[in-house]
């Protein structure tokens, strides 16, 4: 668990930091208002379950359903937008 979390944080932190040094990263309203909060809440909730149960349950279908709700929620809230 620590290896995965550490790798993800290092990957995003270092890459985003280096890219932001070269050119600032614009973050649009849908990302700030929906995608980042929902993704953060999901990671925190799943991490809390892992830390309290100390095991990785077989939640494949549940996680896929949660991802489908995430995609559907973003689509219903913001529709399909393509930015250049």
Automatic annotation (TrEMBL):
* Compartment(s): Membrane
| Membrane protein topology class | Multi-pass membrane protein
Q: Which UniProt keywords apply?
A: Membrane, Transmembrane, Transmembrane helix
TM annotation in the entry: 6-22, 34-53, 59-78
Q: List the Gene3D superfamilies hit by this protein, alphabetically.
A: NCX, central ion-binding region
Where in the numbering of this chain does the Sodium/calcium exchanger membrane region domain appear?
Answer: 1-72
Q: What is this protein called?
A: Sodium/calcium exchanger membrane region domain-containing protein
Q: Which organism is it from?
A: Nocardia amamiensis
